[in-house]
Specification:
- By secondary structure, the protein is mainly alpha-helical.
- The chain contains 17 helices and 8 strands.
- The strands form 4 sheets. Strands 1-2 form a two-stranded antiparallel ribbon. A two-stranded antiparallel sheet has the order 3-4.
- A hairpin with a 2-residue loop joins β1 and β2.
- α4 crosses α5, α11 packs across α13 and α14 packs antiparallel against α15.
- It starts with a helix and ends in a 7-residue tail after the last helix.
């Protein structure tokens, strides 16, 4: 453990020093003027600033959009730390409470640093169909201290921009929470050092490429005429080129993380006593608090993905509101029918299931479509954590795959159904030159959505197997049995959550 931490610290120090040198070089006015176009989930800098003869021609961000995106970024941080941490922490036994909190907090912090060093560049700069390049390595070119100017990133609307640095911050929270979601699948028996090393590998080779494939494109203003459409499309990520719809991360976040978690549950192995002893959550009160913070924070996650304080954000906000409520009701009804009683844990899990399922659909479906998605997800994820879990036979400690995997797949596929204007959906932009809206046939769009799901499952699965194997060979995956029985709070961190 000490060797791993020392190695990580040394590596980050070296990278940080190199980044300072590169940032200083990029701060020259001529370097800032030639910043390459950078894409957002639907947004890239529309034109190279080098082509503008004067600074006055540079795009200007709307203060309302900037204020909203700062708030949205803060909301996503809240839904991770403390929201997800408390939700997970309440579900484990008291002897492992702090270990889960630590894994979430430190994983989130690690990924934010890696995002600033190279993750953002790999995900959101021009490269090829699978991965970006190094134009934004060490965040170079985002801010010119000499001129006091910021690079701009476009949004979904032509001529509308936000500071690219703000977009990078917003997306850093997505990368962070995605990796933290994985923690729940192998909670209570994995080495802390193994978690950190796995996250470095998985983030680099699974999260960044999937984010690039789903969300990178050249932005609306790049489509200046019909003659450039094919060339601009060819520069986008592979899944974006297919036409898959993922508003806020059904594939990138939930399915991606869920597959990694499931692989981890198999490769780390079952907890000592699994199937023989009762693994009762030690504080459903904290789990409820965490679920509530997740729900509130998710408005930033989904509505923030509109990248503007406009109509799309309003639609995503309301769909997130209603779909989650519908999923709570569905899970509670299903549980009452199955067991005769509806539980608080079930209701909280239903809320998360609804949030997961509406993520890819938030700005892509109509109001009633969102409620249907929530109801379907509530029942589907209830089956995921009961029937499917037994079929798979893995000790997915906190049901990461049952909720995030099943919910993410349901949401991704139903996005293809309810996006169509025939079912009161908003449709999609069929021509970015004119920004005209159209609808694909339901069957055609569902097939595109299915291809995106399958590629994500395979990609994350392969990367996860290799990454876990490397970690196992280098430092080992799980703690000794006696340490697991004593609890990871004491054995891994030397402290306890509660004193009697």
């Amino acid at each position: 453990m000490k060797k791993l931490i020392a190695t990580l610290a040394l590596g980050l120090a070296v990278l940080g020093f190199s980044g300072a040198v590169l940032a200083q070089a990029a701060s020259a006015p001529e370097a800032a003027a030639s910043v390459a176009a950078v894409a957002a989930p639907a947004a890239a800098s529309a034109a190279d600033a080098a082509s503008a003869p004067a600074a006055a021609a540079a795009p200007v961000a709307n203060k309302g959009d900037v204020a909203w995106m700062i708030v949205a970024t803060l909301l996503v941080i809240m839904m991770t730390v403390p929201g997800l941490a408390l939700f997970y922490g309440g579900l484990v036994r008291s002897k492992n409470m702090l270990s889960v909190l630590m894994q979430v907090l430190v994983t989130f912090s690690l990924i934010v640093v890696l995002w600033c060093i190279y993750g953002y560049s790999l995900a959101f700069t021009e490269g090829n169909s699978y991965i970006g390049g190094f134009d934004r390595l060490f965040m170079k070119g985002l801010f010119d201290p000499a001129a006091g100017t910021f690079a701009m990133a476009a949004t979904f609307s032509k001529g509308v921009y936000i500071p690219e640095l703000l977009f990078a911050a917003f997306q850093a929270t997505f990368a962070g929470i995605t990796c933290c979601l994985i923690v729940g699948a192998f909670a209570e028996r994995i080495k802390f050092s193994a978690v950190l090393l796995f996250m470095v590998l998985w983030f680099t080779f699974s999260y960044a490429p999937i984010a690039h494939m789903v969300w990178f494109w050249m932005g609306p203003d790049a489509y200046a005429s019909k003659e450039v459409v094919d060339a601009m499309n060819a520069k986008a990520g592979l899944i974006w080129q297919w036409g898959a719809l993922d508003f806020a991360g059904g594939t990138v976040v939930h399915i991606n993380a869920a597959v990694a978690g499931l692989v981890g549950a198999f490769m780390v192995g079952k907890r000592v006593g699994y199937g023989k002893e009762a693994f009762t959550p030690h504080s459903l009160t904290l789990t409820m608090v965490g679920a509530s913070l997740l729900w509130v924070g998710w408005f930033g996650f989904n509505a923030g993905s509109a990248l503007e304080a406009g109509n799309s954000a309003v639609l995503a906000f309301m769909n997130t509101f209603s779909a989650t409520a519908a999923a709570v009701l569905a899970w509670s009804i299903g549980e009452a029918l199955m067991r005769g009683k509806a539980s608080m844990l079930g209701a909280a899990s239903g809320a998360v299931a609804g949030l997961v399922a509406i993520t890819p659909a938030a700005g892509n479906v109509g109001l009633m479509g969102a409620i249907v998605i929530g109801f379907v997800a509530g029942f589907a994820c209830l089956w995921g954590v009961n029937g499917l879990k037994k079929m798979l036979g893995a000790d997915d400690s906190l049901d990461v795959f049952g909720v995030h995997g099943v919910g993410g797949i349901v949401g991704a596929l139903l996005t293809g159904v309810f996006n169509t204007q025939a079912l009161a959906g908003p449709g999609l932009v069929g021509d970015w030159v004119t920004a005209s809206v159209t609808s694909n046939g339901i069957g055609a769009q569902v097939w595109i959505q299915l291809k995106a799901v399958l590629l994500t499952v395979v990609w994350s699965g392969v990367v996860s197997v290799v990454a876990f194997k490397i970690v196992d060979l280098v430092i080992g995956l799980r703690v000794p049995e006696e340490e697991e029985r004593e609890g990871l709070d004491i054995t891994s961190h030397g402290e306890t959550a509660y004193h009697q």
